[in-house]
Amino acid sequence: MSNNIDFKELWNRGKSSAPDISEIFAKADQLNRKTRNKIWRGNLLLSLTVAFMIFIWWYYQPQLITTKIGLTLVITAIVMFLATTNQMVPLLAKTNVETDSQHFLAQMIRIKQKQEFLNKTMLTGYFIFLSLGIFLYMIEYAGRGSLTFQLTAYGITFAWIAFNWFYIRAKTVKKQLSAINDIITRLEVVNKQLLD
Q1: Residue 192 has what pLDDT?
Q2: Fewer CB within 10 Å, N side or C side of the chain?
Q3: Tens digit of pLDDT for each residue in 94-103?
Q4: Cβ–Cβ contacts within 10 Å for residue 176, how many?
Q5: Is residue 134 within 8 Å of 74, Cβ to Cβ?
Q6: 3-state secondary structure the chain
Q7: What is the pLDDT of residue 4?
């Protein structure tokens, strides 16, 4: 047995593999850019939807108050959703290279909290207003058909809303949280290593 200890070898083996902070920043910037682009696409599509609904209201002149209330509820839901979603855009600004990992971690946690608020509170309110508005809107036009047509129209509409609520929304929320949680976890590891 040799008593010679190679301290250099021990030192080199003891180094931990710290994640590259620039890689984490790049991944977070990519996620923020995707989220920002998604918000802009949503703004465009929902604004066009509101314009189309206002055109329908103006052109077809609905007779029943339920139709007008339904259109108002749907437009209100869209405007409320757009207003709260757009409040997230400043948080998604491109990361400053000089930002330290602690401030960046705090920013990512704020983004996560805002996304959780949007996904739970605002999306729930949006779907409630949207569903109620659609069903009220359909009373005037579905009521003109037979009972079979009415049941089919409401059944298909309800099935589509349920599919979006239980499948699409759940899958999207899970994917968003997974991506941001990964970045937050990696930043926490870096911060812990810097503090130790």
Answers
A1: 83
A2: N
A3: 766 567 778 8
A4: 20
A5: yes
A6: CCCCCCHHHHHHHHCCCCCCHHHHHHHHHHHHHHHHHHHHHHHHHHHHHHHHHHHHHHHHCCCCHHHHHHHHHHHHHHHHHHHHHHCCHHHHCCCCCCCCHHHHHHHHHHHHHHHHHHHHHHHHHHHHHHHHHHHHHHHHHHCCCCHHHHHHHHHHHHHHHHHHHHHHHHHHHHHHHHHHHHHHHHHHHHHHHHHC
A7: 57
Q: What angle separates helix 101-117 from helix 169-195, to the nearest 10 degrees?
A: 160
Is this model's pTM higher than 0.85 or not?
no
Q: Which residue has the tokens 């802009």?
A: 40
Give me the half-sphere count of Cα atoms (radius 13 Å) on the Cβ side of residue 61: 0
Q: Encoding tokens for residue 196? A: 């130790």
Domain ranges for the chain, please list them.
18-195
85: tokens are 């979603």
Q: Which two tokens stand for residue 153?
A: 């129209």
Give phi and psi for 5, each to the nearest 5.
Answer: -105, 125
